[in-house]
Design goal:
20 strands, TIM Barrel, alpha/beta, 2 domains, globular, 4-stranded mixed beta sheet
Amino acid sequence: MNFNTKLSFMSDEQKALMLDRVFTLLGVNGARLDHPFVLEILAEAGADVDKNTKIVRFPKEFLEKVIKGSPKSAFHAGVIEENDFEVPRADGLFITRSGTGAPFFMDPETGKKTTVTIENVKTWVKVVDSLPDIDFCPFPSPSDIKPQVADIEAIHATFNTTGKHVWTQPYSDGSIEYLIRMAEVVAGGREELKKRPVLSLITCSLTPLDFKHMDLDIIVQAAPLGLPLHLCSLPSAGTTAPFTTGGVVLLAAAEILVMMSVTQTIAPGAPMVATPLIFASDMSTGGSLQSSMEAIIGKATAIEFVKWAYGIPAHTYGFGSDTVIPDEQAAAESAMLASIISHVGGDILGGAGQLEVATIASPVQLIMDDEIAGSLRRIQGGVNLDDDYMAWDLLQEASFESQFLSSKHTFKHCREALKTKNFSRKTFDGWEAAGKKTQKERAYEKYHQIMAAEPKQYISAEQVKELKSVLDDSIEKLVK
């Protein structure tokens, strides 16, 4: 296979200059880390730590050692083995996930935007579980659950619904322990979880270069277990970060390297995924944008840089729109974003189904994004140019009167073409005879088919009981 489908936004000279600036920024300015244990171990490892200000400065040699020692891949286990994956993929293609953390839900039945409920979470996960080109499952944020246990209740519903890998961002210091305990139940115990990490976690910076106790504690608790950590920087150009692409990417790269340093100091060899979620700012309103051209270029440049500089898998938004409904703009922005990020080498494309700058979870958009993911995987797969695929023997025998419809070569290869799921390939007359349905209407029909199907259960009855016991324990301990 000829992998000739990559894009680049940076020269090697520009990458080398940016890496040097990252080292200088972290060596001179440093970062603030609000976690006594983390400060202690970084000081022991050779970082320059001021425990009064909580500012840590990282010598260049320290950072170079972290980069050199970081694992270059990350295994993610599915609830069932057929959904396991490793990044980077051996075939050079990308992995996908749905949107995470949205506080709002676009009800397919009413078209109304509502706050997320735990029933919406179950609906979302059922849709994700049914889509062949969405590989793992985060979830939106339910508002009808006590906030101290909202993430625990949501992951409880998720593990009861999906056979895919589960990805989460803890909502509080207290919930981290219970999220991990639920993963232990699904994996079959703590030691089995180390072998089969059915859960990965997000840990985030508080841009610029500030790190909260909770996010550092995620690393402290998860890294020794070998749970993949998605090290997430969320700078918004022009507000929490410099407005220019170079400035926002430099800041994101520095924040990710801080989290890499903490992770590898606590648990050398712990799997990590660099996750620069770059936003742009609409300076006329002050709002953030995830799918403007500047935001797309920022994400693409960040992905290219961190893969080159750090050598670890990279993950960012590969889907999603700034518009508020699953319309033509949503389809166009999501397709543009996915195309650019996949072809710049993103290992994980996130955000399928999200609208209004990742604040609305839309099952209809999720189904349409699944189609985009499958189509881009076909494009990114490249072209095979051996003699069989060039039809060399066939063409040498062909005459000016030849046709190829009945040839054995055509019969051999004709089923290799991508078969679309919801995109229409009908003629106008055929489309009219089928009811003149739009892509959105066909996605809505697919949603109904998914919801009408019998729910699947991937874990045992005993595991269901154990998950409920962990949930009950969390409510008793955390809800005041």
